[in-house]
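yo

u said u wanted the structure for the complex thing, so here. seqs first:
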Amino acid sequence: MASFASTAATAVPGGCVAGARRGGRCVFRASAAMAVAAPSRNHYEVLGVEAGASRGEIKAAYRRLAREVHPDAGGGAAGDEDFLRLHAAYATLADPDERARYDRTMAGPAAMLRRAPASFRRRTWETDQCW
Amino acid sequence: MSEQVNIVASDSETTGEDKSQLSFPDVAIGIDIGTSNCSVAVWTGHQVELLENTRNQNGMRSYVMFKDDTLSAGVTRGATREHGHEERDILSGSAIFNMKRLIGRMDTDEVVQASKGLPFLVQTLGIGVRPFIAALVNNVWRSTTPEEVLAIFLLELKAFVEMHLKHPVRNAVLTIPVAFSRFQQTRIERACAMVGLHVLRLMPEPTAVALLYAQQQQQLLHDNMGSGMEKIALIFNMGAGYCDAAVADTAGGVSQIRALSGRTVGGEDILQNVMRHLLPYFDSLYVDQTMDRIKSTGLLRMATQDAIHKLSSQQHVEINVDLGDGHKVSKILGRGEFETVNHAIFEKCERIIKQCLADAKLGPDDINDVILVGGCSRIPKIRSVVLGLCKKKDSYGGMDPLEAAVLGAALEGAIASGVTDPSGCLDLLTIQATPMNLGIRADGGNFVAIIPRNTAVPARRDMLLTTMHDNQTEVLIVVYEGEGNQAEENHLLGYFKITGIPAAGKGAVEINVCMDIDAANVLRVFAGVIKPQGQAVPPFVEVRMPTMDDGHGWCGQALAKMYGTTLDLAVLPKKLHP
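structre next:
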């Protein structure tokens, strides 16, 4: 699970560098810089969808959650962190290639179980015009 | 002048304290300052409403007239006289306009160079400082700056809105072109601060239109007429100064900006092209800027403007204008000829749309609605170019092309002020995207993007870098914004040094540079050494960008001259499994 940050072509909050925002100001935590904090939830859990979720379901979940955690939509308490995590999850799962790569990096028996049904639909994601 | 601004600013501040907190919610107004026209709108409690000055139907002209000791902007003055007479006054040299094209630009900028044909003084020395602009007052050029002109205009606009709403106004959402650099954005903010307006958001114009579109789609859903399905809109906005495009993905009141692109090209360029076409020696006409010449260029400008407007509805237009001094223009201009003369501009528009579609990874068939807004969207050729590229027969008809952006800004103003509407009318969200790559200078003079364009905002990205030389104890982080591969081709935003790096062989230390954009679009750069670790390593540096003040054109060159490559950085290849 700790290998998520290595897929971080997209920013994974709490990854290489942590610039935590507190009360509108950025507080820098250099000590956490190299500590690749293992995210407590994987991308599917962040979006609250099943591992085999369709692209439409992922998009709908992203929109619904964005309205809760985006700083403009009243998600101000946690600053930008929640939205950054949500968007990173969405950006990875909405792109078929990224999603396939992400699924492969999810090692462990739990991930294997999740992946089984997913392989069914993956073909349709790839033929889907995705972005 | 500046004194006048200060007095008014403090005045409104004090009256604001007394009443505002008690009697009305502090709802931000939406302002669309165009290169040629300006409009303002506000949330009235159940909808957004455009504020109009009584007689001036086409919005307010964006200009400031300098006369003796009085200054007046286009907000109210435009309504008091006949349009033609007013236009002649504006072009007499005493008025400054097009400030949106001039603001925050250096005198080496080609847009500033092209502004020398305007009937007021634009003096450039070509050394990368703010151009000198001046208005003619009693036959003397009186100097001013684009920020100052904009502030005078905003002051009058603010007074007009306050008179209309009968309460003080303190917050505003302004629309800006996609092509605006972050430095230009700070100039707009400064002008607003000068008149006591706090900027809640600077919204790229097409994204304001996207917000209005999202609201209309929600409304349809409420009225049981919409399907609630995801809709993808291409928004094309072309005004007098700038041209932008955006692809927005809308469903459930959430509008996600998937791509943005824009350039400094607009009606002003079309106008200048046609003027040069009508009068080939136009450029030699304005160089000396005597009173006669200013008058002549003014007359030609008026006649050309009029002809271009007419060509939107008719195939041919007759131009007959006596410029005085023996200069005369007498010509019949056809639509075909007009389109040939402006061929390069239409091509630029095409490129903007193609880039926007490519960035959004979409084809014409994916687009549900094409929204055409801005003054130039009336030009038949522009319409056919945009609709042709999107393979559509007609554009979205649900909004007024001149009001869409300002209404969207007013919606955002209400949302950002925390207004909630029981009917769910304000239950909207725009997920913005960055219009340009943000990055630093590394690997020699290269520009390395850390946050690529069209990244969702808020955004945070980082990159690992290292030193270029053995025992290099300092590195210079130079932050740029733009699309060029070479650092120097982009807009310089700022720079800072990281010092006290432990001495080591080149490539041995690891330096992390992280860029962060928050929801209010504030950019911060964090940088520091992450390897080796320990007490000997200096603390990280956090810098809010841009740090540049005026006269930033020569900074990049000065840095290069002073330090050469001694403080350079190199990108570390991404490690697969750290």
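Residues 118 and 366 of chain B are 42 Å apart (CA to CA). DSSP finds 15 helices and 28 strands in chain B.
cya
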